[in-house]
Structures are given as structure tokens and as C-alpha cells.
Amino acid sequence: MHIPYATQSIDDSDLEAVRQVLTGGWLTQGPAVPRFEEDFARLHGVKHAVAVSNATAGLHLACLALRVGPQSLVWTTPNSFVASANCARYCGAQVDFVDIDPTTRNMSVAALRDKLAAAERSGRLPQVVVPVHFAGLACDLAQMRQLADRYGFAILADASHAVGAQYQGAPVGAEHADISVFSFHPVKIITTAEGGLVATQRDDLAHQLRLLRSHGITRDPAHMQTPPEGAWCYEQQLLGYNYRLTDLQAALGSSQLQRLDRLHQRRIALAARYPRLLEGLPLQLPAVLPDRVSAWHLFVVELEAGVRVDRATVFRRLRDAGIGVNVHYTPIHLQPYYRALGFAPGMFPHAEAYSRRALSLPLYPDLQDAQQEQVADTLRRALQP
Asked: Three-class SS of residue 179?
């Protein structure tokens, strides 16, 4: 029996929500999209929620709204999917990285502080910093906000893993970040099949984001430069994109949001069982911190020094046994595209060391206890020489 590392959780209420849209009057942009945005904003404590076609599109639009361009410098973490850096490159910006904290696997605040001090001395500070809430564990955004205010950069939080996560007693939203971007890919906490959402507390950024996601066009007479002749009129006010979410997807998202707490609690319960099931194995487990609640998008273990089986062998043995483990991530700066920009091995040693040892174990709401025990037993055998 194959056990994937992650998969969507769909029930009859989700099917009914999509059926209602299919038999209604709207398939693309109708009432389900703003309803989904309102539902998400309420649950995450944000003023503005702008649904988009996927999280990569959301990151791109966020960079554009923050005026990232060819003269800009954007910093992110090497321990993420490439979209966290590519969004800045789409705008022609220069990208650099900040190494991770080996315990949280998130961007290190200490490394960020040191890099900012050096950048100030050299006269080349970042315009935007993109921290990533890796695996669903929030970054230390309060300290990052202090640094942002001190050095004048914007915080664009990549919250693709963090729907439902909490930081200092509040939902991860936009309380410390200028913009946060969420993902609804099928392996994430909730799904819209494909889809993303950009959250902000700022009215000006929300207005730009809504324009940019739909060709730069407005139909709102209050925002038009020329008084409209009739209801058919619209204005393209800037060069935007078609990054819109459909009503079909939004209906699925709203249905899933109604089960967010139940889905999250199941992830928390599974994550709490893993340490007992893996007890005694030479593994570094994910950090659990008192001031935050992880969304538990991923459960990543690291093979400790001294393990007599290499990671590739452990990975192969698990896959051969039907356990769909994965690795998150190959450091972005080691990808050929970024090596061609001048990055090289050794530049961000903590991210590189982590990546050589990491394994993502199966974790998703429909994972059964017996299946999780099978994962642990198989891993125990795979670690034997």
C-alpha cells in the first residue's frame, strides 16, 4: 500500500460546494471569490485578502505592489521552493539569501541582523525581505519587524505553508508583515486545487494588488481617471496580469475553510505522535516553540551525524516500501539558475547542511494512525546498516 507524503482531504461538503457553482450562473469571477476572501480575512485577522491563481502569482504581485524593480535588492531564505526568490527575479531585481537557524530551519534573525549591519556599511540595503514560514512554523516576525523599521525594508512573508498557524497567540496573517502570501496547492493545509491569496492590512497595497491581478483594469467609477459614460466602461491603469482565482476554486476554498480547525487539529495530533513513534532513532525532529503553533504542513526529520546509512539509501528504501517520503528543499542558491548568477556551495552552510540530512515524512489529515506507525517502523528498518 502506497502512503504519500501529502495529499488533499476532500469530503462531501466540498463536492457539494463545487456542484453548486457548476449548476449556477458563474464559473470564473463571481460571488464565490469575494466570499472566500472575506472568510479567509476573518479567520486570519487581516483587513484585505486578495485571492489569486497560485501562490507564485501572489508573490509576484506582492513584489510589484512593493515597487520591486531592476534597481531593487530582495533577500530571502535558501531553504524554500524557488518561487520565494523567483518572484523578485520576475521584476528584474537582484536576489540574495540569509542563512537559516538550524533549529527552526527558518531565516535566522541573528544572520539577518548581521547581514543588515554589513549592508548598511556598504550602502546596499534590501528593499524587501522575504522570510518563509517553513513547514508551517512561523518565523520570528516581531524581531524582523523591528529590523524592518530600523533599516527601512518591507517584509513580504511567504506563508505558503502556514494557513492556520499562530504566532504569539494570533493567526499568522499580516500583523508584522507588510504582505503575507498563502498557498492552496493540494498538499497544503487547505486546497482550492491550485490557488493562492495575498493578505495585507494596508489599503494602498490592497488596491494595487487587486488592479495587478486583473490586467491592471478597474471598473470602479470612484477610481477611474475619466468619468464613465456607462456601466460597460473600464480603464486599464497599469500593466497587470490575469492572476485571478475562479469561482469553482473559491467555493472549494470556502468549504475547506469551514473545516480548517479540524484539519489543523488532526495535523497537530499526528505531529505529536511522531516523536514517540521515532523514539531512539538518530534523528533531529522539528522544533516546537512555546510562542507559536505550527500549521504542520510538513514533518521534516534530519539524519544525525554518525548514521551509518546515507540519506539517499534511506530515501530509496522508504520509497521501495511504498512510503512517499520527500526532501524539502534543495537550497535555492544551489540551483543551476542561481549558480549562474554567482552563488556557490558554502555560502549558506546551515541551509546546505540541513538539506543534506532532511527527509519529509508523510503528514496529512487522512493519514491513519496505523499508516503512521507503518511509516515509523519502515524508517526504523531503513536506518539499519
From this structure: strand
Nearest residue to 37 via CA among 244, 267, 220: 244
Q: 188 catalytic, yes or no?
A: yes
Of the listed 185, 188, 244, 266, which one is catalytic? 188
Which CATH number does the domain 12-258 belong to among 3.40.50.2000, 3.40.1170.10, 3.40.640.10, 2.60.40.10?
3.40.640.10
Give dist(CA 14, CA 253) in Å, integer.
Answer: 8
pLDDT in tens, 56-93: 999 999 999 999 999 999 999 999 999 999 999 999 99
The contacts found for 20-27 with CB under 8 angstroms, 24 or more apart, are 20/251, 21/247, 21/248, 21/251, 22/248, 26/247, 27/246, 27/247, 27/248
Mean pLDDT for the chain?
A: 96
Q: What is the pLDDT of residues 165-184, one digit of tens each?
A: 999 999 998 779 999 999 99
**Residue 4: half-sphere exposure toward Cβ, Cα within 13 Å:** 9
Domain range list for the chain:
12-258, 260-382
Out of 3.40.50.300, 3.90.1150.10, 3.40.50.2000, 3.90.550.10, which CATH number does the structure's domain 260-382 have?
A: 3.90.1150.10
Q: What is the dihedral of CA 98, 103, 104, 108, to 10 degrees?
A: -20
pLDDT band at residue 27 using 50, 70 and 90 as cut-offs: confident
pTM: 0.96
**Contacts with 146 (C-beta within 8 Å, 6 or more apart), sequence order:** none
Please choose, from the candidates 75, 54, 323, the residue with its C-alpha nearest in 3D space to the C-alpha of residue 198: 54
Which of these ranges, 149-163, 213-227, 309-323, has the smallest mean pLDDT? Answer: 213-227
Asked whether the bond before 338 is cis by omega within 30 degrees of 0, the reply is: no
Query: Rounded to whole angstroms, what are the CA distances from 219 to 57, 199, 223, 225?
Result: 22, 22, 8, 11
- Residue whose grid cell is 505558503: 160
pLDDT of 1 strictly over 70: no
Residue 86 backbone dihedrals phi, psi, to 5 degrees = -60, -35
